[in-house]
Amino acid sequence: MSQNIYDDANFFAGYATLDRSVKGLDGAPEWPTIQQMLPALAGLRVVDLGCGYGWFCRWARDQGAAQISGLDLSNRMLERARKMTEGDGIDYHREDLQTLSLAANSCDLVYSSLTLHYLVDIAPLLATVYQALTAGGTLVFSAEHPIYTAPLHQGWRVDENGQKSWPVSHYQQEGERISNWFADGVKKQHRTLGSWINALVAAGFVIENLNEWGPTAEQIAANPALDEEKERPMIFILRARKPA
Amino acid sequence: MSQNIYDDANFFAGYATLDRSVKGLDGAPEWPTIQQMLPALAGLRVVDLGCGYGWFCRWARDQGAAQISGLDLSNRMLERARKMTEGDGIDYHREDLQTLSLAANSCDLVYSSLTLHYLVDIAPLLATVYQALTAGGTLVFSAEHPIYTAPLHQGWRVDENGQKSWPVSHYQQEGERISNWFADGVKKQHRTLGSWINALVAAGFVIENLNEWGPTAEQIAANPALDEEKERPMIFILRARKPA
Fold first, then answer.
1. Torsion of the alpha carbons at B18, B21, B27 and B31, rounded to the nearest 10
2. Burial A171-188 (b: 16+ CB within 10 A, else e)
3. What domain range includes position A24?
4. Which of A9, A95, A188, B202 has its CA 20 to 30 A from that of B239?
5. B58-85 per-position pLDDT tens digit
6. Number of structural domains, chain A?
7. Does the CB of B40 have a partner CB in chain A at under 8 Å?
8. pTM, rounded to two decimals
9. Closest chain A residue by Cα to residue B215
């Protein structure tokens, strides 16, 4: 089974303090960009891979999505999601994305936020998503950017003038990266952007948009802690389409 | 007119000493990867954007390409190319890629090696290439990778254990980067991978393959100077197709 760090009590407690946990979608600075990359949701059947607290599922419901499934490996997350969205008619399931199966032609939009970099092997999931989407359907997902994940020890460097930079090394060495993020030994997978894109193409997807997210000047003015995020992308957002 | 550093006498003299200048395609470590990304050339009409000494044009001729045009802004390069490939029936033209026009449906493969990062605006050239390609035609090009070009002052950092890393900063700040490479003030353009890919998609291309080039273990064993290239990609190679 895939690593399930979100059911670790300490991790879960730490994660719960993040802006994106407390404030939901508006607490995630990349959300305005993701929103621009999404299709109109009214009438769509939507699947959220790694739904967490269910913030996106609730938003999709507000946008008039016809059917919404939120999938997550973490029982704690699902419990919280069910409590928060009670009566919203959203369907939550516990699923391991590494071994997921979905009915063919059963959805129009597959969404995933900062989840797929936990998967050791991305190809089986992409094949599952592809056959589950209707022709013309859309996949939009974010993941940690390989510039961010490449180094074995990730962190900023600050030079004598105060300029921050992100030392990149081991870029070509794909695979496990261990970080200590609310808990020790959180395992994520580093893969190059080329590997992400080529895996999507191999699964049959057409690449529509790649955004290597960085903050706008307005976002930095409103939240100066975001300033460093302009130096290197921490996440990317990708939109791909199943050909009609 | 675009910057024409290759007609600078000092730059040209320095450039002439590079392995890829002396040995041709086999002097470029990314060439085996590019070769795998190229279609079979027999019978194809080929255009090389930034042909330099004409090494690729000659190789295309050896592969049985039906028609070959080598375009470059540098008179020195073209003079050398014409001398080296005399009688090969290759058509060399002086062209500024920033204002290039090509006849519609006039070629099957457009190739470019380490040239397009000199262009301030990539969109007009991509539109030109798109209409020049026949349906199903291919664009294969390499350019400096944005991880490499992002910092205002590019260079390795070596930590106390001898680990090399490439400090990335200013990634989101697209535009001019000045480097001193055989001549002072060589101007290149930094653009994110997202911008490259989205410009191709906007021009109508379908992304087929992205390779963020790094050396193989065999290449490093044969040429230990390549070892550092595994830490971060210096170039990327992209293959895109005009839909049939």
1. 120
2. bbeeeebeeeebbeebeb
3. 5-241
4. A188
5. 999 999 999 999 999 999 999 999 998 7
6. 1
7. no
8. 0.96
9. A172
